[in-house]
Amino acid sequence: MHPLARTILQRLGLGLMTLFIVSIVIFSMVSWLPGDFAKAILGQAATEETVAAFQKEIGLDKPPVQRYVEWVGNVVQGEFGSSFASRVGYKRTVAELIAPRLANTLFLASLTAAIAVPLALALGILAALYRNSLFDRIVNSVTLTTISMPEFFMAYLLMLFLSVKLSWLPGLASVDAETELLERITRCALPTLTLTLVIVAHMMRMTRAAIINLLACPYIEMARLKGMSKSRVILRHALPNAWAPIVNVVAFNLAYLVVGVVVVEAVFTYPGIGQLMVDAVTARDIPVVQACALIFAATYIMLNLTADIISIATNPRLLHPR
Amino acid sequence: MNQWEELQQAAFTKRVSRRDFMRRATALGISTALATGVLSRAGYAQEPKKGGTFKIGLGHGATTDSLDPATYPDQMTGTVGWGATGNSLTEMDAAGNIVGDLAESFEPSDDAKQWVFKLRNGVTFHNGKAVTANDVVQSYLHHMGKDSKSAAKSILESVEEIKADGDNVVFKLKGGNADFPFYASDYHLKIMPAKDGGGADWESGIGTGPYAIEKFDPGVGAKLKRNDNFYGKAYFDEVEVKVIADVAARTNALTSGEIHFMDRCDLKTVNLLKKNPDINVTEVTGYGHYIFVMNVTQAPFDNPHVRNALKNAIDREEIAKKVFHGYATAGNDNPIAPSVQYAINPEPIHTYNPDKVKELLKKAGMEGLTVDLSVSDAAFSGVVDAGTLFKESAAKAGININVIREASDSYWDAVWLKKPFVASYWNGRPTCDWMFTTAYAADASWNDTFWKNPRFSELLVAARSETDSAKRGTMYAEMQQLLHDDGGLINIVFNNYVSAHSKAVAHGDFLSNWDVDGMKIASRWWMA
Q1: Burial of residue A21, with CB atoms counted within 10 A of its CB: 0-12 exposed, 13-18 middle, 19 or more buried
Q2: By the CB < 8 Å criterion, does B442 face chain A?
Q3: Separation CA A30–CA A64 (nearest Å)
Q4: ipTM, 2 decimals?
Q5: pLDDT tens readout for residues B228-256
């Protein structure tokens, strides 16, 4: 078997194991949350009878182990169950709740990634190329400033200037399934900008550091002595060896774009999966919480897996370990 | 001073009617636009006109919401599922009176043990079906019965039987209740079409109201379209409701013109919002109140002197000013809001009085009293600050209060009704009987002070079936006095509903029974 294929299979197996352990952790954590769904949704108005009736309807009266086994069994078959908000004659499956929200989140994440990743790489390479120049310093200080500000503060600043004062961009990113692509992009402009400013610094500095680190190596010196141009040295000789750390940071940031943007979603009222999960936690809608947590875990595992595979593929020493 | 200036002066001092003003302004050759501008600045109500899309931003709403009126938790579902698209048998008017809505009239008989509601003629649901008495019966039965999870279950517990009788619906009650028509105005008791096999059809969201639901996306928002067959008022062509949980986002959406109306303004920054020339901030005193409750069965709160000492150790004015920025009215340990019929302001008015506290503690033999007070943001926002101010003022009067911050998400399960001294809130109720039955009757499941007073219980039953208004008033006055003097309630403040709207929309008098103009904003407002 090709060593790369073997590695991928190995990693996939490990990923599935991790996911299984995560599912146990998620289930027990959710079970340990104080309060329960029936009381949370009935609020102050809950009487013992109504709570008992409600718990029976949503199956909360069964023992936890039985509930876990049933849940995992269903999830393996791709069935996430129904939300506790369902009623007799009004079924709301977890899948139909999550699908549009996940699509929104992925849209925002892809839009941001499409801008932020090339931008960060380009800035990082240029900064390494013109190390210690005025350009390098400006890029560094600007990106460091934007990453140092909490994301909600950045979001409010952008909203204040670009939306409230100048009225250039909409401050509410409320989109639905019928929103046209162009309007969707306009509505997402501010959240995208906020997220871009938040994640660029991390990726850009890692790119710069990885390349600069390599520039001291003898083989780069050799290349320079041969009389190659600066850009060729970096792009052809340094960059291929710098992929591993860069890809890891990019993967980390992409995962953040999917699982960590709930604050930005809240500020711009963007109907993404983060808000759904927060809603579900508040309302103790356990099937939705569990499904979201599982999706988040899977996203992390998948992206890290991809990053690992890319770094292994680009580095023969990792591909053929002794 | 020329005639135009004189006329404007008259308008600003309200010495001239809207109509006269317009007539005289036209005679003076003033343009209509200019004249209406002056009128609106002078605070005259405008003539409602049809048209436009009204965009509302609300701070509630969750993905777990559904259109089942039995589980409407808050103003989002109430506004969309009831206020804008449905009707109850009765409704409250702006003066706090109960008037017919889907019912044309209602009559008690047999010592208010039986109520007959006569349905309005020729009303249809959004799907064109005529409203019948059977629809009403099924809509009510939806909330009753053993397995019901409805929030309205407790107020319908007194109903023995509901019958359709031609155009009338007859309610037989277990005991007389002169306030039953008030219950019928509750927002959970929306009238829905009956299903063929029995039961009410809530799934479709079909109602009788001024707007029909085009789209309902739980936790995100709703789109509504005017129902041209509606028997009452409806001015907008379309209404959009957006769920914007974050208060800063809501404020920004309003200032950038993405919405016309927002509820629950941020009291800390509302003064800045007021400076915006395109925005009006409004304030309505409802029935809601923020409270500290003492369990009168547990030491040291079983001692009435201790309870009174604590009632006099809190500086409500200071809390109203510092925590609620003036958007609240100091309470006087009476849960009945001033705007409710038969409300009194019991004497002596409880204010901050350290000397009296010391005297009372001496009488009780409890000098150097220490108590634990459990608070959480689940009760109301600003509760920690209110508790801290209470601690400070009580300390000066010789009471040591430990303010304990409890977890929000299990507050109603694990703290309220469990710990002896806790912070809480009530949305309030539109009648004395309703409020007392909910929270102060000896056997009420939410009697959070555990106060059981025989005289109070006796009066509660007697007043309920008393149809002579003067006698009822005396009874309710005595009950409020008893509760004020002896009960375990510290009513900190009546909270005001503070909302803001763009000047592109206009409104009349506010309903005060619920926030968001009684949740009927969609039918009561219009484009300016």
Answers
A1: exposed
A2: no
A3: 11
A4: 0.77
A5: 999 988 999 999 999 988 888 889 889 88
